[in-house]
Design brief:
This protein is α/β, with parallel strands linked by helices and 330 residues long. The chain has 14 helices and 13 strands. It has a single domain, classed as Aldolase class I (TIM Barrel), CATH 3.20.20. The strands form 3 sheets. An 8-stranded parallel β-barrel has the order 3-4-6-7-8-9-12-13, surrounded by 6 helices. It has a two-stranded antiparallel sheet with strand order 1-2. It binds flavin mononucleotide (FMN). Flavin mononucleotide binds next to strand 6 and helix 11.
């Protein structure tokens, strides 16, 4: 049995596979199943900033003031209203408490947010309920033409939340930044304990019969992992905090690649839906077999090993590879 233990966000995990925030991490029963299946940690399904804001009784007045939250799409408010009626905040805290009693792996709470409004008080409640860490899904979308602050909002949210809780905080980000490398580096040096790269936004498609926009695929494919791999490889030694790889990680081989690129952990969702929670066990087995074949005794022994040349000057490295790559094709 290989030692797959790793540290992520300062939390000790028995292995680097984290069940990502998704429907499966939203109920106690499935959290228990994921833990039994071998998950190293679990990130609970996100609660939305809007749900928190509305419950503190600023309700629609606050939300309506914010063009990001209240875009005139009445569906948003219907959705929020439904959740409020279900006492989503109380249920969420209860889920944290119950999950902590039921499983012996780190339980990370998750909040999906877009502003630095009054919702941040709730982060302290997740800590009181026993969460081992907090993941902020910073869901700022570059398609927002109203916001002039974009990157600044990230820093303001982080500052506010770090002033409220003492549990480790990570952020889950999209890949849409101007000057991605510099921004991620600056974010990593704010005092957060981890960055999850990357969030997967809603994927649009077009139905050519109806001539209308429709939703694309719910689940990722392994082909989507290359951007994650690229940015984990570029950032792992430059980052001031741990990195978790997310999007397109479906197999043990995929996980190994992300660790070789320098990730401290990987987060998986789609593969759990496609293959069931037992996929975690299959991934772990594959990782152990590979470590055996390669003679590695621990994750630390190979973490980031594949990226030395890349890290020295990623831009020059990529340019050189690009030149070679396309000159090979006639
Ligand atoms: C059904 C479903 C629900 C999800 N819900 C959340 C959520 O509440 N919060 C969140 O941060 N990410 C959510 N995600 C995104 C995943 O955590 C993950 O970032 C994304 O699916 C990419 O990883 P994957 O390629 O392993 O699926 C959800 C994904 C799926 C498939």
């Amino acid at each position: 049995m290989k030692n797959l233990a790793t540290k992520y966000m300062g939390l000790t995990m028995k292995n680097p596979i984290i069940a990502a925030s998704c429907g499966m991490t939203g109920s106690l029963e499935s959290i228990k199943t994921l833990a039994r299946s071998g998950a190293g940690a679990v990130v609970l399904k996100s609660i939305f900033e809007e749900e928190i804001l509305l419950e503190v009784n600023q309700q629609l007045r606050e939300a309506e003031k914010n063009p990001v939250i209240y875009s005139g799409l009445s569906e948003t408010l219907d959705y929020i209203d439904l959740h409020i009626r279900e006492d989503s905040l109380g249920n969420y805290l209860e889920l944290i408490r119950e999950a902590k009693k039921a499983v012996d792996i780190p339980v990370i709470a998750s909040i999906n947010c877009v502003t630095y409004e009054d919702w941040t008080y709730f982060t302290g409640k997740t800590e009181e309920a026993g969460a081992d860490g907090l993941e902020l899904n910073l869901f700022l979308n570059p398609a927002d033409f109203e916001s002039k602050e974009f990157e600044k909002v990230y820093f303001k949210i982080i500052e506010k939340v770090l002033g409220t809780v003492s549990i480790p905080v990570s952020i889950k980000i999209s890949r849409y930044f101007t000057r991605m490398g510099l921004t991620v580096k600056a974010l990593s040096e704010t005092g957060i304990a981890g960055i999850v790269m990357f969030n997967r936004f809603y994927t649009p498609d077009i139905d050519i019969e109806k001539g209308a926009m429709v939703k694309g695929k719910y689940f990722s494919t392994p082909e989507e992992q290359s951007e994650t791999l690229r940015w984990i490889a570029i950032m792992s030694r430059k980052s001031g905090c741990d990195l978790a790889a997310s999007t397109g990680i479906h197999t043990g081989e995929d996980a190994i690649k992300m660790l070789l690129a320098g990730a401290s952990a990987v987060q998986v969702a789609s593969t759990l839906y496609k293959h069931g929670p037992d996929q975690i066990g299959r991934m772990l087995k594959r990782m152990e077999k590979w470590m055996d074949e390669q003679g590695y005794q621990s994750i630390e022994a190979f973490k980031g090993k594949a990226t030395e040349d890349y890290q020295k000057n990623p831009a020059a490295f990529e340019r050189m590879q690009f030149m070679k790559y396309y000159s090979e094709i006639r």
